[in-house]
Task: structure prediction
Amino acid sequence: MGEVAVYALRVESSAFTKISALGVEEQRVPVVLDIVDDPSRWTELGDGYRVEARIRVAYVRDALTVPASALFREADGWATFKVNGEHAHKVRVGVGLRTPDFAQLAKGLALGDEVVLYPSDQVMDGVGVAKR
Result:
């Protein structure tokens, strides 16, 4: 059938576990969708049809992002270590939208800035760093 445009009317707040035909545990979340595409593209669908969907919860054009592994909590906000030459310098950052892998930055870094991934408690402001 191909792709059709939909709008999510409701996404339930919790998932349930279902065992697949192959015995794999799957987490599923009920979603109520409104199909907003041309009806000629979806009228063959019937009640109870299964669909595979990619749901975009947000879209930010030209967003500056960093790996979530570069961020850590600092008082009531977020920070990261920016690499400046051969040293790491702590920078407070404004975090916008987040996923488990990436975070949108509203302030604190610029395009092209390098950051320390997975900073341990050994990393402090001004400590020497080397690329791996």
Notes: The two ends are 46 Å apart (CA to CA). The chain is about 0% helix and 40% strand.
